[in-house]
Amino acid sequence: MKKTLALGLLALACVAPAQASAVQLNIGHRGASGTRPEHTFAAYDRALALGADYIEQDLQVTSDGVLVVLHDGTLNRTVRGPAENCTGAVDTKTLAQIKTCSAGEWFGAEWAGEKVPTLEEVFQRYGKTVNYYIETKTPDPEDDMETKLLALLDKYDLRNASINDWQVLIQSFSADSLKRVHAMDARLPLVFLGTLNAASIQSVREYGVGIGPSFGGVTQANVAAAHAACLNVHPYTVNTDADIARMLSYGVDGMFTNFPERLEAQLGAAAAPGLTGPKTAAADLRRCRGEQKDVPAPVGGTVGATLSLTLGTPGTFGAFTPGVEKVYTASTKATVVSTAGDASLTVADPGKLTNGTFTLASPLGVAITPNAWTGPVSNAESVIAFTQPIAANEPLRTGTYAKTLTFTLSTTNP
Ligand code: G3P
Ligand code: CA
């Protein structure tokens, strides 16, 4: 029977369109709990600094109905303080009682100031700048942990970011808890914690996006089978370099680790930057499930080569007065459109103004400002200034003096 099942999984892995995510997510298990007291801000800050894509929260409910972040159902292992407040079951203490306790002293004196955080305080501290991997821990339906969790997601505007980008993943060993969340909002991404096998794959694909197995039971084949069913695999809790390497070689989509720095080092350049890893994983899963199609739709345009020169109204000096020395001035403008890498505006030798066979003594002066451009321009204007000196004793013949000039707009870099 066992053999038949194993062969079935392998066959599925070979023929189905298995789709692993393009990223392997670094999940800071209880924060950087290898080097900081678990589930404290110190542990979360450290995990993020070490490259974790997610910080994990285990949820418990206080006697007055507040979601706090603590792994154990009792305070005894990781909390210190007055015995009446800081020992015993979490759900027999009020939040005020628990806040009198230290959540870091057990780990080291330097962490004595750390408190048990509420989930709300975690959201207040990090907002939408991080990704959260939240576990409903041993949930009692009477506590309504799931409703409280979704209310906080809404209060901190995390529901849509969770649905679309997996900014919040909800995990549980309790399929019933996950199914309660699924019944409230079927779009939320859920991860079942438990054995990775054909039965769990078949069950979880109905409501979840992945399975979080203990890493000891993970094989290349069962990862492939999960991928064939479009489910992610996030093993816990993978701490040694050798185990991390083995899980990566199986193609898991991420893993819980107390040492995010070790996983980050092995991922190297493949490590997801910032918030983008979960977003990528979410999109990859939608593609696998046929819920997202990426259709290339190129959009663009072209620019034809253009060198355009428009001159303004012809310049005129007006009337020259014989017997009076003067430099007459006139101007017009040039408008340039150029798509070239450079352009310059020049004028051919202007020569002298003529009146029939009569010619003025001094040449016409022409100055163009500006007369060069180092990149494309649209409707750039230049001033063209004309000067015409007339001497006091210069003979002037009655009539109209004129000259047609040739301006050239050119480029060396079309
Ligand atoms: O949630 C993944 C992993 O943390 C499950 O084990 O006992 O550490 O919550 P535990
Ligand atoms: Ca956990």
UniProtKB/TrEMBL annotation:
InterPro entries: GP_PDE_dom, PLC-like_Pdiesterase_TIM-brl. Keywords: Signal. GO terms for molecular function: phosphoric diester hydrolase activity. It holds the Pfam family GDPD. Transmembrane segments: none annotated. Residues 1-20 form the signal peptide. Gene3D superfamilies: Phosphatidylinositol (PI) phosphodiesterase. It comes from the Bacteria. The keyword Cell membrane does not apply. Residues 24-267 form the GP-PDE domain. GO terms for biological process: lipid metabolic process. PANTHER family: GLYCEROPHOSPHODIESTER PHOSPHODIESTERASE, GLYCEROPHOSPHORYL DIESTER PHOSPHODIESTERASE. This is Glycerophosphodiester phosphodiesterase family protein. The lineage of its organism: Bacteria, Bacillati, Actinomycetota, Thermoleophilia, Solirubrobacterales.
